[in-house]
Structures are given as C-alpha cells and as structure tokens.
Amino acid sequence: MGEPNPVPSSKRGVDGAEGSAKGGTDGGAGGLKVSISLLSADMFDLKDELARINRSSVDYIHLDVMDGHFVPNLTFGYELIAELKKRTGKVLDTHLMISNPEKYLAKYVASGADILGIHYEIKSDVTTLLQEIRKLGAKPCLVFNPGSSLSEVERFFPYVDQILLMSVNPGFAGQKFIEDTLMRGREVAAKIKKASYEIDLQIDGGVSDENVKAIRASGFNVVVSGSYLFRGESLEENIGKLRRA
Q: Tell me: the pLDDT tens digits for 46-81?
C-alpha cells in the first residue's frame, strides 16, 4: 500500500491550518459537516437539483467517480465536475473509485475537485499519490472499504486531510448501513486523537436521521448522505435533522 516517506509533516486539518491535540474539525451547525451525494439526485433534472443544493446549507457536494473496473458501475468524470464548478460555490468532495487514479489526479484537481479521495485498496503507491494531490492544490482523502484492515491507518496521517470509512460496499447507492463501521470509526478517531492530528473523519453509505446520532458518537464529523437527503420535499429539513441529532 506504500510506505510513508520519512519527511516531516505539519499536523493540519482539512482547512490546511496547523493541527492541535484533537481529532476532526468543526463544520456546519452543531459541528457536523454534511456532504450530499450527487449520485442520488435526479439526473434528468440535474439543473434544478443543483439549484436546490446551492440554496441549502449543505457543506459539500460528494461526487462518486466510478470506472466500471475498480467497482462494477460507471458514473461521471472530470468533464461534469468542471461544469459543476462553474455553477456552485459548494466544496466538491470527490471520491475516486477507479483503478489507476495516478493517471487522472491532475485532471480532477484542474476540473475543480477541492477534496480528492483515493482508495487504500488500489495497487499504486498510496502515499505518493496523497502527496501529489496536496501538491496539485487539493485536500487529500484516503478511503477504506468495509472489509479493509485499519491496522496501518496511522501511517497515512501526515498525508491526509480526511479519512473516509465506507459503511456500504462501494459502487451503488441506496445500500443498507454496515453497523461495524461505528466500531471502526471509534478506532480511527481514537488513533487520530492520540497522534494529535486534525483530520476529518467521514462516513459514506446508508446515513440517515435514524443512525446519525450513533455515527457522531463514534467520532465521525463529516457524513455523506444521498438517498436520505433527497427523500421528500424539503432538502433543508433533512439536513437539519442530521445536524440536530
């Protein structure tokens, strides 16, 4: 998975500031950042869906990029992200579910990705790619699938602004939440705190008002939600339910 290079790193959070002895950063009302998954939007009415998002208090737009190889599905690429960047002021939280991200990092950053996530499970040198993302000007995020070991997660702390733990198997929207992710979150949150890094801890998959209280108690400060947020008439009401839990 790639050994970290022996280069000193400042202990910084997702905003690039110097870190302190706490894990995660506050965001949004109540300290929870909400990242809305565009994959769950009505793609036949994307202009209006984006207008709804722009009017809302959501913090990030989560963009799931799938190549049909790393995961068995295809979505969109950097061309769509570039068009979104022209039409929103929201942070573009981009999750690359692709086999060879090293070929495309520069294009995704140039297209407007503010946060760029790559998977721990890829065969490339993860550490080098995280460093390259930061060098290109985006905030690096490392993503772990539900079945992946977290035993060496600390090795990547100097190179990330965010860690994403998947609470569903990646590739499709609307899956059932994997409860073991709560225990995994507590484990990573404790390691971040012990190491005195400010790193956002994000969760993605099956998040709703029914489980967000337990999610927050497990140390996550950023939630990705799609199916739940787009459900019903009021996007803002659903965001509020997550933040008030």
A: 999 999 999 999 999 999 998 777 787 769 999 999
Catalytic residue among 42, 59, 64, 209: 64
Please tell me whether residue 31 adopts helix, strand or coil conformation. helix
Return the SS3 of 202: strand
Catalytic residue among 59, 93, 200, 204: 204
DSSP letters of 45-97? GHHHHHHHHHHS---EEEEEEEBSSSSS-B---HHHHHHHHHH--SEEEEEEE
Residue 145: phi and psi, rounded to 5, are -70, 160
Q: Is 204 a catalytic residue?
A: yes
The full DSSP string for 162-197 is EEEEESS-TT-SSPPP-THHHHHHHHHHHHHHHHT-
Reply yes or no on whether 161 is catalytic.
no
Cα Rg of the chain (Å, integer) = 17
